[in-house]
Structure formats: structure tokens, C-alpha cells
Amino acid sequence: MTPAQHTLGAIAERFGLELRGDPALRVDGVDTLANAGATRITFLANPRYRGQLAGVGAAAVVLRAADADACPRACLVASDPYVAFAKIAALFERAPAAQPGVHPSAIVAAGAQVAAGASVGPYCVIEDGAVVEDGAVLGPHCVVGRDCRVGAQSRLVARVTLVQDVRLGKRVLVHPGAVLGADGFGLAFERDHWIKVPQLGGVVVGDDCEIGANTTIDRGALGDTVLEDDVRLDNQIQIAHNVRIGAHSALAGCAAVAGSATIGRYCLVGGGAGILGHLTLADRVTVTAMSLVTHSIREPGEYSSGTPIQPNRQWRRNAARFKHLDEIARRVGAAPKEPES
Amino acid sequence: MTPAQHTLGAIAERFGLELRGDPALRVDGVDTLANAGATRITFLANPRYRGQLAGVGAAAVVLRAADADACPRACLVASDPYVAFAKIAALFERAPAAQPGVHPSAIVAAGAQVAAGASVGPYCVIEDGAVVEDGAVLGPHCVVGRDCRVGAQSRLVARVTLVQDVRLGKRVLVHPGAVLGADGFGLAFERDHWIKVPQLGGVVVGDDCEIGANTTIDRGALGDTVLEDDVRLDNQIQIAHNVRIGAHSALAGCAAVAGSATIGRYCLVGGGAGILGHLTLADRVTVTAMSLVTHSIREPGEYSSGTPIQPNRQWRRNAARFKHLDEIARRVGAAPKEPES
Amino acid sequence: MTPAQHTLGAIAERFGLELRGDPALRVDGVDTLANAGATRITFLANPRYRGQLAGVGAAAVVLRAADADACPRACLVASDPYVAFAKIAALFERAPAAQPGVHPSAIVAAGAQVAAGASVGPYCVIEDGAVVEDGAVLGPHCVVGRDCRVGAQSRLVARVTLVQDVRLGKRVLVHPGAVLGADGFGLAFERDHWIKVPQLGGVVVGDDCEIGANTTIDRGALGDTVLEDDVRLDNQIQIAHNVRIGAHSALAGCAAVAGSATIGRYCLVGGGAGILGHLTLADRVTVTAMSLVTHSIREPGEYSSGTPIQPNRQWRRNAARFKHLDEIARRVGAAPKEPES
């Protein structure tokens, strides 16, 4: 496949960027500041990498106006170079070769509907009541269970399982190994053993969401588990039953949200962070990596828990003291505190 | 499929509940306190939701006697409303349509045994020496590896992998993406590189266990990794080689147990909690979410580690001080402490 | 299959161990110190289990010279008993029955190359441009995506997904559910919504690596995500885009490394530990379980964060005080500290 080619002038015009350099220069791809060769576009967004600008070999650099003078190559000036670069890079993406049609090895139940413009890959299994809308692409080994819906232009990359009653919006992208619609963890303890609480709800995913590899989103116990539009989940995230995540929120890898928690819009949850059940997070709350949220957060802002990384020897001495911190505080005459719940 | 219908009187009698209301009233499902309509049963167990009782629209509410007077609809009085509700909800579950028999696309080795009453779904692969007992149900894309056993009435929902020497008891429920019987992480370091320690044991899972989506349970290095009866594992849990988990224990999402740890009976492990290797937890130990257990626990009770969530600005000041906590403690004349191991 | 049999004398000679006992004694397997019967070899490496030595029933025990006198059975004396045992145990491993050839149900694209000596299991899907080298073994349900390479003698146990542009070295072992080459989590925020940053790089895995069940390794955004030779990853590990992990490093279950972090050689990362993005860890850094690394580490050594596990009641009092630790420190006249970043 011949790589796509574009001129700098065409790119600048398309994305409304100021070009400082030769508009006729042709480029055929993107690369990092350190590696980009003479036919590639690169970018500078993170100031951490500014030192690499002097030695850049790229055809052009997407950057802020303030950095343009220090750039020895053509510049594409953007107020947000990362956003501009994302759009430019998309020009050079090799499209997944998805031909419309159902692979002969796929098993589609009589009661399922697959749009003529959808693409269903090898060994997919589509069960009764399922709907695959136009332009949707299912890679190999996907399961679309009973009464699930894959919205138009959505893509299940490979080996995605939608168990039951999972409805995806449009342009949803789901990476391999994700499981949506498994039973929530509902247990009632009777005398000396557990009883399973039936999980009868579904999962609703809005438009333009992305769901990472091996991420799990459980079906609701009664109502649905909900991701509003443009929610972005990284890999290995766990979303328990009846969670609701507001539009435009993003969760980094290995974050976990316990049952019936509600996360606002435009929230950011760091990697490995946890949010306990039945809590509410306001809009625009940021939780830093590996923090544990144990109570609702009503105010936007950034929240953290944990202790800093230290050489183990120092850490051990400090950690031993933490076990007696209340006593230490009382010694210095600090006022009594409500114990943490 | 017409929904099941039951009268309140029949339900009260079946589960031994006191009914306050019309025994002839027919119901056709269950729902939340907030959403249940006039033909649905709901429940009130968590006091957090008591405020919703006045406006309830359900046919009947399962609740404690103390809440009955405040309920404007029929009441089903239970000492444990959540247990009673779990049983009632099961009446309305849509049964998975599992016909006995082996799907023509499934590959069953000559040396495997599949009971006539078992159901094996599309694209399953069952290897030599494997046994699938009567009433077991395998959804699509399951692999039952060499010398594995799926006990009677057990269910592998979809895309479950039993690698080798995995024996499941009766009525075990395994959700999609779970991997049982992969090699434990056994490494020996020789001079300048790793040597793999062969993993030769299996996995034994007792009756009535539930194993969540994308959970992993490794085979033992020599002996087996063991889950006793009625162990309940949520999603994305990691159980390392030669762990033993006592009957009726439950672990929430993303918990992890390192090699050769032994967890007692009736333990509760919170989401994201970790238990280091070779430790022992007594019966009835509770570990709160995201705590790390670094030594054996001999007494029942609740255990925690970590620090509270705070606005990041305050947290940063406190966290910086944690690095010098030993010095602070010495300043106030606290007795020296054994460093944490 | 008749189990392999070896004499103690042959084993001692093969691995250069001193034998104290009858060289003609035949053994047919390995087992734990507690369980090994009279035809089995066992080992003593962890002093924790020394008390079991007196009652050992094994044919022979692999142990250090210092423990030999206390052993009532034959001894195989080794400077590192665990390494020696690992090699001995490998003699008794039941080999996976992998016949060369492509299972008739596997779908191999016309533009893919599968070596004659490779084994491709049922329902595998191998896409255009993929290469499977000689002696490689693919269990059931593996996907080898476009332009991926599975090096000679590598093994994908079952249901492994290589999405695109993933190149595995020789003798790489990948456990079920692992996903390599999914898109990294690249997002740019434009005004009020997310834009996906195209992920165009690949994944490069060196020789002799092991990758655990349900582990995820994302493709690079531009350059590649790299594991050097002999890197060992346990289950459910998350490796983000453009991470680089140095040779001979090992990460325990549920560890996570954020984007563009660089980990040195011979590093050890404990279970559930996290490493933030764009950081660098020197060679021979050890991070203990569930610690979070928030800044680069330039010196070898062991590093930790977190607080010790305690009974919840005591923990709550101490945790409440942590929220005011800066104030406590100021009361005792400790010098002001730079807030933790």
C-alpha cells in the first residue's frame, strides 16, 4: 500500500494552522521529535522534550508560536499542538481493511440483524435479538450476545464479548478482551453461605466512547450501567454494576469503580485509582493515580491519597511510625480528630 | 417470551415472608426503589435509600419490619430484605437458552467426555482427557484443556479458558475472559538471567463458586491452587499459584493474592486489595479496599492500610511530611519503633 | 503416557550437583517438601519450610550444603537449590502435544507465512503480512494480526491476541488472554471533547520473554513499545504505549507502567505497583508491592510507598491524623518541606 502523501500547505489549510515554511513540501507520515526523518511531520507539546527541537530532522514541527523561533525546520503553529498533531496523524493511519459482509465462519442467529454495510469477521457469534448497525466492524472472535446492539460505525477490534443487553452507541471503539455485560458481583449472605443476587440490567454506552483491552463493564443489577457520550476507558479497567460515568470523562489503566458509584462529566481518574460504591463525584473531579476515593466529592478539583515513594529503608522507619500517628499527634497537643470512615 | 407472573401471596408463602397487602396482586418483575412500576417488586435494605420509600411506585417492597409503617405500598417483611429480594428476583430471571448437545462447530477430542445433558456452544475446543458433566453449559469460544473437568450444572458463560488440570465442582459459574490454570509465575534467577520453574500442579475449584470476568487463577507449581466451596471472586482478580481460599470467602474486583498465601473461611477482601505470598489469613478476616497485607493475620476482624483521600494541595503537604515521620516522632519523644518489614 | 524416570546419579551428573545417597535410586517426578512420596524429588530453598525437613518422605531433597545433615533422605546439594530444582523439574514436565501443521479450522491469510514446522491450533486467525516462524506453537483461538511476527519456538498458549505490528522474538511464551498491540490510550482534549490520537507504532518483544494471562501491552503511539530480552511479566499487567523495559526485568501480577516510562535492566516490580508516565528507572531498581513511583529513580535499590496494614480501628485514628500531618510537623518545629509533586 503506497503511503498517503500530503503537502504542508494542504495540511495547514485543512486544519487552520499557520505554516512557516514551504507549502509545497510533501510529507508521507508522522514520527517522534527524536526520530522523524525529512518526509515526516512531528510535534512539540510537552516542554520536557523542548531540548530535542534544535536537532530535529523532520519536514515540519507542529508547535506553539512561542517555540517556533527555536525550530530549524518548517513550523505548523497551533494553539494546542497535541490536538493539531492528532488530527494530522489521522491522515496517515493505515485504515483497517474491513470489507462489508459477514465472514462465512461467523455464526449469526436467525433472530439477529446485521446491516448490509457492517463487517463481521471470522468466528464471530451473534445471538438472537442482537443488532449490528451500518458501518460497524467486528474483528475476529467477537461475541454479540442476546439483545445487544452495536451502533453504526462502531468497531470491536477482536475478541470482544458483549454478554447480554449491551447497547453501544455510534463510533464506539472496543479493544480486544473487553467484556461488557457480565453479571455484576451481587451477593447476599444467608446464615452461612452466599446467595447470588440475579443481575437483570444491561449496559448502555454512549456515542464516541473508547473501551480498552481487557476492560470489564458489568451489567446492572436492576437498572443499567451507563457510560455517557465520549467516555474514554483505558485497559484493564473495572466498572461494576450500576455505575454511571458522565460524558467526556476519562479513566486511565487499571482504575476501578465499585457498584452504583456516579462519576460526573469531565472527570479524570488516574491509573489504578479506586472509587468505592454508592459514591458521587462532581463534574471535573480529578483523582490522581492509585488514590482511593472513600467518600463523595462535591467540589471540582484534584484529589489524592497515598504516601510518596522512598528508599525502602527510610520508608520502613516512617511506615512504622504511621502505626502510632494518633499517639504522636496527641503528644503534640493536636485536637482530637474524627476517625476516618 | 411472556414474562413470568406471580402473586404477592404466592411469593410470601414460598419464601416465608409476612405480607402486608393484597395477596392476589400480580407482579411480573423486579426493579429499583426509584424506578419500579405498579407491577414490580422492589426492596429497601440499605438505609441510604430510605428517603425514596415515600414515593415508591412498586406493587410491593421487601423491607424490614421497622420500615413497613413508612411504606405506602404492599410490604413483604423480611429479617434480611436483601436475601429475600435475591430469591424473589431469581423467579424473574430470563433463563439462558442452553439446549443440551454439542454445537457442530465445537471441536471435541476423541479422548474427551461430554455428558449427553451438557451443552457445548459454538467454537468451543475440548481437549483430550477433559470431562464435561451433566447439565454443564459452555457458551461460545470456551477452551477446556487437557484433563480439565467441568462439574455438573456448571456454566462457562463465554470465552472461558481452562488451560490444563483444572477441576471445577458443581454449579460453578465462570464469566467471560477468565483464565484458569495458566502457569504460575515461577522464576529462578541464575547468575544473569531467569530460568522458568516448571508449573506442574492444577487448579481445584469447589462447588458453588463464582469467578468473575477476566479473573485469572494460576495452576500450582507442584500442588494445586484451591478454591473451597462457595468462594466468590469478582472481575479481574489475580490468584497466584498454590493459593488456597477457604469456603464462603468473597473477593471484590481487582484484588490479588500472591503465591502460596492461605486465606481462611468467611473472609472478605475489598476491591484492589493485595495479599503477599506465603501469608495466612485466619477465618473471618476482612481487608478493606486497596489495602496491602504484608504479614499473616491471626485474629478475625477488619484490617486496613493507606491514607485518606484529600484535596491534592493538602495531600501534597502531608505526604511530604510522611517522608520525615520518623524524625517527627523522635522529636516528640516517641519510643523507637521496629521498622516495618 | 508413562512418566519419565531418571536415576539420582544421572540427575546429579547432568546438573553438576553433589549427591549424598544412592545413585541408582529411580525417581519419576517432583513434589513439595510436605507431599513428596518415595519416588519423588523435592527441594528446600525458603528457610520458612526448614521445619518440614525432618519428616520428608521424598526420594531426595535438593538443598544447600548447610541443610544436608538435617535431611533424613538422599540429598542433591546445590548452591542455589531453587535454580537446581527448576532444571530438575523440567525433566518431568509433560510436553504440550503440538504437532506441526495448521489445524483445518485455522484461517490463514494468503499474505501470511507459516513455517512448515510451526503448529497452528483450532480457530486461529492469521492475517496478512504475519509471519509464524519454525517451531512456534499457537494454541486454540489465537489471533496474529497484520504484520505481526511470532518468533521461532515461541508459544501462544491459547486465545492470545496480537493486534497489529507486534514482533515477538524467539522462545517467547504468552499465556491466554494476553493482548499485545492494542491502541495506546492517546487522547487530546479539544475545547469540550476528546480527540483520539492515532496509535501508529508497534510492540517489540525480545527473546525468552514470558507474558502472563490477561496482560496487556499497547502499541506505541509513534515508535514502538519495547520489552528487551528475558523480560518476565506476570498476569494482568498493563504496559502502556512507548514503555521500554530493560532485559531481565520481572514484574509481578497487576503491576502497571504508564506511557513512555523506561525501566532499566534487572529491575523487579512488585505486584500491583504503578509507575507513572515518562519516568526512568535505573538498572536494578526494586519497587515493592503496590507502591507508586511518581518520579524517576536514578540509584539502584529498593523503593516503597504506602502504609502498614493495621486493625481498622487503629488505622482509622491514624489515617485521620495523616490529613493534618503538616500541621503536626509544624507544631514540633520541623523545617518546612517541599510539597510532594
TrEMBL record, chains A, B, C:
Its EC number is 2.3.1.191. The keyword DNA-binding does not apply. It catalyses: a UDP-3-O-[(3R)-3-hydroxyacyl]-alpha-D-glucosamine + a (3R)-hydroxyacyl-[ACP] = a UDP-2-N,3-O-bis[(3R)-3-hydroxyacyl]-alpha-D-glucosamine + holo-[ACP] + H(+). One of its GO terms (biological process) is lipid A biosynthetic process. It comes from the Bacteria. Gene3D superfamilies: 1.20.5.170, Hexapeptide repeat proteins, MurE/MurF, N-terminal domain. The keyword Lipid biosynthesis applies. One of its GO terms (cellular component) is membrane. Keywords: Acyltransferase, Lipid A biosynthesis, Lipid biosynthesis, Lipid metabolism, Repeat, Transferase. The active site is at 241 (proton acceptor). One of its GO terms (molecular function) is N-acyltransferase activity. Residues 25-91 form the UDP-3-O-[3-hydroxymyristoyl] glucosamine N-acyltransferase non-repeat region domain. Coiled coil: none annotated. Pfam families: Hexapep (PF00132), LpxD (PF04613). InterPro entries: Hexapep, LpxD, Trimer_LpxA-like_sf, UDP_GlcNAc_AcTrfase_non-rep. Pathway: Bacterial outer membrane biogenesis; LPS lipid A biosynthesis. It is an enzyme of class 2 (transferase). Belongs to the transferase hexapeptide repeat family. LpxD subfamily. Homotrimer. NCBIfam families: lipid_A_lpxD, PRK00892.1. Catalyzes the N-acylation of UDP-3-O-acylglucosamine using 3-hydroxyacyl-ACP as the acyl donor. Is involved in the biosynthesis of lipid A, a phosphorylated glycolipid that anchors the lipopolysaccharide to the outer membrane of the cell. This is UDP-3-O-acylglucosamine N-acyltransferase. It comes from Dokdonella fugitiva.
